């Protein structure tokens, strides 16, 4: 005998299976013990019933309940296979995608069930577009509908489109109702509340106005931010221009202090544009007559340039030129100081010694 709660193994695929001792045919699903001594020992029907929980057993724990659910699932699979619902290699037959069918006759039949051929007075239906705007002379053309479509996110614009469409319907329907002698005004003693009270409509109106004002403030804030951004850009350009003019003026002052320039154009301020000053500084030196102050200073200090080697040699002209010759200076007479000869002459050494001995 086998234990009462014995797990089972179902062979769902018919065919021939091999084993060590031989082979056998599995034309019908059979149940075998999963943990018996023989790996492929066949169970009897009574054992299968006990294994599947068909006998009275005490309450099961969580682990035992899970195993019981698995046994029930195996039994369901066995029953499904016996009915031919399972195919080899599959546990569940997948259903194909549903095919869409355009049943025109069925749709027409459904339409005929609720369609009524009534007079317009009974239906009171009209299909119209919105009333033209106050600023416009005519309604927009059909090809411009996409260009002037209502933004669904804009509550104010959406509500206004509803209002204009209802207004167009009223203007078109009232004359027809008057022709058909249908009263359009209720009696003075007739009381009927609207679907939405006046208080609710006032709240909606206030909400829409608040939202519209918030949108306008947002647009103004965007414009102010754009103006501030443009103002900062202009201010930065002005500051850069001032810094360039200041640097140019400082360079002109330094050149004037060092004697490289004799013009005081930097004292004129902003009378000349910066571009003209740069152009004048680049081409003015080339067009200036004569050497610059820097060149004159170097000529005065180092000479006028040209050949330096052999510049002190005599030539025929320099040898014949005696205009700068001074005879007194040449013979050493011009360097003596005027005065009497020997007036402050000091006595010699022997004389000074004799004079010293006489005193003793």
UniProtKB/TrEMBL annotation:
Record has Coiled coil as a keyword: yes
Biased composition (Basic residues): 328-360
Cellular compartment(s): Nucleus, Nucleolus
Biased composition (Polar residues): 37-47
Alphabetized Pfam families for the sequence: Ebp2
BP GO terms, sorted: ribosomal large subunit biogenesis; rRNA processing
A cellular component term, taken from the record's GO annotations: nucleolus
Chain spans, region Disordered: 17-74, 132-152, 276-360
Keywords tagged on the record: Coiled coil, Nucleus, Ribosome biogenesis
Family: Belongs to the EBP2 family.
Role played: Required for the processing of the 27S pre-rRNA.
Protein's name according to its UniProt entry: EBNA1 binding protein 2
Species, as recorded: Pongo abelii
């Amino acid at each position: 005998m086998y234990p009462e709660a014995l797990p089972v193994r179902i062979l769902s695929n018919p065919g021939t299976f091999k084993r060590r001792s031989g082979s056998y045919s599995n034309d019908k699903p059979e149940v075998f013990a999963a943990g018996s001594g023989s790996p492929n020992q066949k169970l009897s029907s009574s054992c299968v019933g006990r294994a599947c929980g068909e006998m009275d057993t005490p309450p099961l724990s969580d682990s035992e309940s899970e195993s019981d659910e698995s046994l029930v699932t195996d039994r369901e699979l066995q029953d499904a296979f016996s009915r031919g619902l399972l195919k080899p290699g599959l546990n569940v037959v997948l259903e194909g995608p549903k095919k869409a069918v355009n049943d025109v006759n069925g749709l027409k039949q459904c339409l005929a069930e609720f369609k009524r051929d009534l007079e317009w007075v009974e239906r009171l239906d009209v299909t119209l577009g919105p009333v033209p705007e106050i600023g416009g002379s005519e309604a927009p053309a059909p090809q411009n509908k996409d260009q002037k479509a209502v933004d669904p996110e804009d509550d104010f614009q959406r509500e206004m489109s509803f209002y204009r469409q209802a207004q167009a319907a009223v203007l078109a329907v009232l004359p027809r109702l008057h022709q058909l002698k249908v009263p359009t005004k209720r009696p003075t003693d007739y009381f009927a509340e609207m679907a939405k009270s006046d208080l609710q409509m006032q709240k909606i109106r206030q909400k829409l106005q608040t939202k519209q004002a918030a949108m306008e403030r947002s647009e103004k804030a965007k414009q102010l931010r754009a103006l501030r951004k443009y103002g900062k850009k202009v201010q930065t350009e002005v500051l850069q221009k001032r810094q360039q003019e200041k640097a140019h003026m400082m360079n002109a002052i330094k050149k004037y202090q060092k004697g490289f320039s004799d013009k005081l154009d930097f004292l004129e301020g902003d009378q000349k544009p910066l571009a003209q000053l740069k152009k004048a500084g680049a081409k003015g030196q080339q067009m200036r007559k004569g050497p610059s102050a820097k060149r004159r200073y170097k000529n005065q200090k180092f000479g006028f340039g040209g050949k330096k080697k052999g510049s002190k040699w005599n030539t025929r002209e320099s040898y014949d030129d005696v205009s700068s010759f001074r005879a007194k200076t040449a013979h050493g007479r011009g360097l003596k100081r005027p005065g009497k000869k020997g007036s402050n002459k000091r006595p010699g050494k022997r004389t000074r010694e004799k004079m010293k001995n006489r005193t003793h």
